Amino acid sequence: MQDGYKPEPELPPSYSPPASPARAGAPGPELSSSSLPPHPEPTPSDNVTSTPVSHEEKPAAVAIPSLQRYQRTVGSIYGYFSNSSSRQARLKEMHVILDTDDVQPAVRSGREPIVDTDTCSAEWSPFKGAGPCKLQQKFQELVKIMATQHAGFLPETTKLLAAISVIPMRTVPCGRGFSIQNRIKTKGRARIKAENLDVLMRICIEGPPIEQFDFYRALETFRVEKHRRIFQGPCKERCPCRQR
């Protein structure tokens, strides 16, 4: 026996060598369920939430509550008209009245057009040949001349110029008017009428400065306009307009 040689250990008689790995395409060893380790059951500490999956989709009316309410409303309206022949006749009359597919837009809004477009187009050539159009003057003066001298000759053009003269070219006057309206019509004056509001707004916009306003004259006009209790009795002698 040579030095350093160790004999291989003897194997027991019941030992069999392990199977070689399966090649590609070769069937592997079959595994039974008894040879697999058991799958652990989930516990509450795993924080696993399972969402049930439904393969049947719900109808849109059930999924959307607003659509369901809309269907109920339509059904009730349909039932209201379908149960009575007189209601169906009135519904047809309403459909004829409200059917505006063949009506011109100017008539749909319930208002007639300001000018006749055909007549206004025919008046364009005489308007260019008129004397006021050839003069170098302001637009407001042109409108006054057309309204006083050529209204019978060019009626539609005169109305068109009058409408153009009041159209604001900028939004600044509109914003100033709304601010004055909000300053006059406050919560305490919510019941003020449109006529009085218009007068007060015109005074604020076109009136004289507050330093030049004659308050005694306005008070006297207010006093003599009609019988007022505030100017009767002891207040009659203390009225500022009577002390002047």
How would you describe this structure to a colleague?
The chain is an all-alpha fold and 244 residues long. Among the domains are: 33 residues, no CATH class; 49 residues, no CATH class; 38 residues; 35 residues, no CATH class. 48% of the residues lie in helices and 0% in strands. It contains 13 helices and no strands. It is flat and about 70 Å long. The relative contact order is 0.03. About 5% of the residues have low confidence.
Give the topology, please.
Layout: H1 60-63, H2 65-82, H3 85-98, H4 105-108, H5 117-122, H6 124-129, H7 131-134, H8 139-149, H9 155-165, H10 172-184, H11 194-206, H12 215-224, H13 234-237
Helix pairs in contact: 8-9, 10-11
Main sheet makeup = none
Number of helices in the DSSP assignment: 13
Secondary structure class reads mainly alpha
β-sheet strand percentage: under 5%
Query: Residue-averaged pLDDT, rounded?
Result: 71
What is the tally of beta strands? 0
Using the alpha-carbon principal axes, give the shape: flat
Work out the helicity level.
40-55%
The sequence of SSEs as H and E is HHHHHHHHHHHHH
Low-confidence stretches: 21-26, 45-51
How far is the first residue's CA from the last residue's CA? Answer: 155 Å
Task: Give me the Rg, rounded.
Answer: 48 Å
